[in-house]
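Lab notebook page, bench 4
Experiment: in silico fold of construct C2
Operator: M.H.
Input chain length: 204 residues
Purpose: comparison with the prior construct
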Amino acid sequence: MTSVLNDAKLDGLLSGLHQTSKAQDEAITRYYRHERTGPWNGMEPRDHAFMADKLVALDREKAEFCYMLCRAIGARRIFEAGTSLGVSTLYLAAAVRDNGGGVVFGAEYEPEKVRQARANFEAAGLSSFIDLREGDVVAAARSRLKEPAPPSPRSCRLGPIGLSCVVLMRERGEPHPWSEAFAGRDQITERVARLTERPSFADR
């Protein structure tokens, strides 16, 4: 039985990724609640090292909601910060595909995660709808900026851990048609808020 995606091949791939992510939850909880010592001043090198192979994927229900939201507003361009192994990216790319085509632009800092994410995109047959850059999300996104335009944000917090932050851009003929949905922690949201003070993504 397929999900709202109505894509048996994609559903099969995502089921395995969701299972892997869920299996890592206990280790992540144990690390941050019991094993990690010292004050919290943001992600440190030890934290990045621990999280290097962790998916931290959105739950299936939340990811399906993102898919349905993108479908409902006809999103053709989507910005995602924090791609990891590309679980939520696959839902977003499926929405773009089903909306008639477009692109999901994302960035991921960990080189191995970028490699695995691209392999997942290829396996799902969605690579042509995804532009994934390796490196810092702000620097990567600035490479896609064009003329300044004020955003029209709509915020939607999804889940306690979700590290993805998506900006959904509607196409209805306006010069800079923006609509935003945020899913993530305050640190990610703040970075994208700074980024979107004067952005517009190139129509490419």
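Observations: The first strand starts at residue 77 and ends at 81. Strands lie at 77-81, 103-108, 130-134, 165-169, 179-181.
Next step: discuss at group meeting.
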